[in-house]
Amino acid sequence: MWRFLKYAIPVVTVYVVLLGGLFWAMLQPPVVFGHIMSKLPAFSYFLFPFEPMWLYARKGKLKMGDMAPDFELKTADGKAQVRLSSFRGQKPVVLIFGSHT
């Protein structure tokens, strides 16, 4: 039993530290998180509960009925800037986030 604990405690400690570091990385801005994730070996996706941690880290604070945070983006042609708040009270706005590929 002691031999098992002698090896299990350090392994569990290292796992918890790595899990905490990964969760900390998920709380960082996307550029930082992406840089960290690019350094992780592929097998680590099988070792850690990525989806539950990611959903918790990125859940946000908005509730149903809250006003969307204001932001500004370039138009598709890149010639102008558009603010979300400029559409408020005019017509519904649909936001789609994702890849164009």
Walk me through the structure.
The chain has 101 residues and is mainly alpha-helical. The chain has one domain (2-87). Helix content is 47%, strand content 6%. The protein has four helices and two strands; from the N terminus they run ααααββ. The protein has helices at residues 2-26, 30-39, 44-47, 50-57; strands at 72-74, 81-83. A two-stranded antiparallel sheet has the order 1-2. A hairpin with a 6-residue loop joins β1 (72-74) and β2 (81-83). It is elongated. 1% of the residues are buried.
Write out key terms for the chains shown:
single chain
The total beta strand count reads: 2
Largest sheet: 2 strands, antiparallel
Kindly, what is the distance between the CA atoms of the first and last residues, rounded to a whole number of angstroms?
54 Å
The portion of residues assigned to helices is 40-55%
Fraction in beta strands: 5-15%
Based on helices, strands and strand pairing, what is the structural class? mainly alpha
- Mean of residue pLDDT values: 88
Largest sheet strand order: 1-2
Runs in which pLDDT lies below 50 for 5 or more consecutive residues are none
Count up the helices.
4
Q: How many discrete domains?
A: 1
* Alpha-carbon Rg, integer: 21 Å
Q: Please state the overall shape, judged from the principal axes of the Cα atoms.
A: elongated
In sequence order, what are the helices and strands, one letter per element?
A: HHHHEE
